[in-house]
TrEMBL record:
Chain ranges passing through the membrane: 64-87, 159-181, 299-317
Protein name: Cobalamin biosynthesis protein CobD
Membrane topology, as annotated: Multi-pass membrane protein
Subcellular location(s) of the protein: Cell membrane
Pathway: Cofactor biosynthesis; adenosylcobalamin biosynthesis
An annotated GO cellular component: plasma membrane
This protein's encoding gene: cobD
Family, similarity comment: Belongs to the CobD/CbiB family.
GO molecular function: ABC-type vitamin B12 transporter activity; threonine-phosphate decarboxylase activity
Domain of life: Bacteria
Annotated Pfam families: CobD_Cbib
Gene Ontology process terms (BP): cobalamin biosynthetic process
Predominant location category: membrane
């Protein structure tokens, strides 16, 4: 069994991990991902010194850096899955808790909606700048709302559902691998001279790991809102988006919410033409709250379905023990 524990124990660990995230949020001190990020910066500085390195060599070094960083930690997570009894369940729950970011996502986006509702545009701009890389210094209210909603929908997959999917597939080793791979993509997956080739393996691996979770996330968004518009936007708009995984997630989410997203955005003073997403209303602060509630409902849907599957697996094991 890839997870190291029974499906029922794994679901209990998932529930505990989600509850820990809801109660505690991200650790304010000694977060493992912060330490991992510092170590990754050191590895990158060691292996990515010469920007004149041929593309194939730079990609090979990027792949080597990825393996050097992830293989030992994933193997350590695998070894800990075989802790006996409740220790194994607690470890699984802690691993998922460290990978989840639902509470953090809520705490970052909901204040933007409240600031916009209060007409405090300066505060809304400062809060939005914390979660997106686009320019917000002179952004209009609808542009701030659009950025916050897009971030909410996309990070619903990256910070919640992708982690849950790989936790269900492979327990703690799966979620550790996913979260660290996603972190390296966030650090190295840029089309800049520094990372164009060195960061390409990290970006492509993250695309592969997110392919199924992103589509399950998009389907969840569609089922919990305006299903017809969500599916239509997903089918028509997602192929035009540059990211193969963000496109379905944001298109389906925007259609489900009945809001217009995408369109031009300014990064470092340069305007970037982005395809449209969704349909319906111009985004506002109220849509930010609606986007978070959509993500929250999808989280509960996943937990309920996971519990049902765990119960089914238990009943199947009673009938045919050799199948599990």
């Amino acid at each position: 069994m890839l997870t190291g524990i029974s499906p029922q124990a794994l679901w209990l660990a998932a529930l505990l991990g989600v509850m820990l995230d809801a109660w505690l949020g991200e650790p304010r001190r000694w977060h493992p991902l912060v330490g991992f990020g510092k170590f990754a910066n050191g590895v990158e500085a060691w292996l990515n010194q010469d920007l004149a390195t041929p593309a194939r060599t730079a990609m090979a070094r990027g792949m080597w850096a990825w393996l050097l960083l992830l293989a030992p930690l994933t193997l350590a997570a695998l070894a800990l899955t075989f802790l006996p009894g409740w220790l194994g369940v607690v470890w699984q729950a802690l691993a998922l808790y460290m990978a989840l970011g639902a509470r953090s996502l809520r705490d970052h986006v909901m204040p933007i909606g409240r600031a916009l509702a209060a007409g405090d545009l300066g505060h809304a701009r400062a809060l939005t700048a914390r979660i997106v890389s686009r320019d917000t210094d002179d952004a209009a209210p609808e542009a701030l709302a659009r950025a916050a909603i897009e971030s909410t929908l996309e990070n619903g997959n990256d910070a919640i559902f992708g982690a849950l999917f790989w936790f269900a597939v492979a327990g703690a080793p799966g979620v550790v691998l996913f979260r660290l791979a996603n972190t390296l993509d966030a650090m190295w997956g840029y089309r800049t001279p520094q990372f164009l080739y060195f960061g390409r393996p990290a970006a492509r691996i993250d695309d592969v790991l997110n392919w199924i979770p992103a589509r399950l996330t998009a389907l969840s968004y569609a089922l919990l809102g305006n299903t017809r518009d969500a599916l239509q936007c997903w089918r028509a708009q997602a192929p035009a988006w540059s990211s193969p995984n963000a496109g379905p997630v944001m298109a389906a989410g925007a259609g489900s919410l009945g809001v217009l997203l995408g369109g031009p955005a300014r990064y470092d003073g340069e305007w970037e033409a982005r395809p449209p997403l969704g349909c319906g209303a111009v985004p506002s602060g109220a849509h930010i709250a609606a986007a978070w509630h959509l993500v929250s409902r999808a989280l509960w849907l996943w937990l309920v379905l996971g519990g049902a599957l765990a119960m089914f697996a238990a009943s199947l094991a009673e009938v045919s023990p050799d199948l599990l």
